[in-house]
C-alpha cells in the first residue's frame, strides 16, 4: 500500500470490495426514539451518531461498516446525522443518559443504554456481545 492510499486515493476497486451496505435506518425525528425504546425490548438497537464534516467520524464509520458482521434481523441499526438533526442528537443524550460525543455508538436494550463508545473506541465486534 502506498502512502497516498492511506488518504483514500488508492485503488477504488479494493475500496469497493471492503465496503458493505448495512441496513441503516435514518434517525431523523424525535418520535422515532419511542420506536427505538419499544424495539429494544425484543432485540438490541444500535444508534451511530455521525458528524458528516468530521474526518475522524467518517473513518470510524467506514471501519465500523467494514467490520460489521451481525446477521440480518438480529438488531436494528440507526444512523443519526447529528449536524442536521441536532435536536434528535440532544434528546438521545438525555433519554439514554450519555454525554454527547461524535462519533458515538450506543447499544440500547430494554430501553436503556447497555454499551456506548466514541471515536476509536467504537468496535463493530462489541455488538456481538449483545445479540
Average pLDDT value?
A: 87
The CATH class designation is: Alpha Beta
Helicity, as a percent range: 25-40%
Percent strand equals 15-25%
Structural notes for this entry:
By secondary structure, this protein is of the alpha/beta class. It has one domain (22-130): Glutaredoxin, CATH 3.40.30. 29% of the residues lie in helices and 21% in strands. It has four helices and five strands. The chain has helices spanning 12-18, 32-39, 55-67, 86-95; strands spanning 24-26, 45-50, 76-81, 104-109, 112-118. It has a five-stranded mixed β-sheet, sandwiched between helices. The longest helix is centred in the middle third of the chain and has 13 residues, at 55-67. Mean pLDDT is 87; it is low at 1-17.
Question: What is this structure's SSE topology?
Answer:
Elements: H1 12-18, E1 24-26, H2 32-39, E2 45-50, H3 55-67, E3 76-81, H4 86-95, E4 104-109, E5 112-118
Parallel strand pairs: 1-3, 2-3
Antiparallel strand pairs: 2-4, 4-5
Describe the structure in brief.
The protein is an alpha/beta fold and 131 residues long. The protein contains 4 helices and 5 strands, in the order H-E-H-E-H-E-H-E-E. The protein has one domain: Glutaredoxin.
Task: Provide tags for this entry.
131 residues, alpha/beta, Glutaredoxin, five-stranded mixed beta sheet, 4 helices, 5 strands, 29% helix
Amino acid at each position: 500500500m502506498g502512502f497516498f492510499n492511506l488518504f483514500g486515493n488508492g485503488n477504488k476497486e479494493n475500496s469497493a470490495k471492503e465496503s458493505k451496505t448495512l441496513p441503516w435506518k435514518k434517525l431523523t425525528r424525535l418520535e422515532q426514539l419511542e420506536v427505538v425504546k419499544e424495539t429494544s425490548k425484543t432485540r438490541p438497537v444500535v444508534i451511530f451518531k455521525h458528524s458528516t464534516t468530521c474526518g475522524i467520524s467518517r473513518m470510524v464509520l467506514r471501519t465500523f461498516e467494514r467490520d460489521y458482521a451481525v446477521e440480518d434481523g438480529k438488531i436494528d441499526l440507526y444512523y443519526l446525522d447529528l449536524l442536521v438533526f441536532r435536536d434528535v442528537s440532544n434528546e438521545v443524550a438525555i433519554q439514554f443518559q450519555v454525554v454527547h460525543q461524535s462519533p458515538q455508538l450506543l447499544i440500547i436494550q430494554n430501553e436503556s443504554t447497555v454499551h456506548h463508545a466514541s471515536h476509536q473506541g467504537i468496535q463493530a465486534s462489541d455488538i456481538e456481545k449483545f445479540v
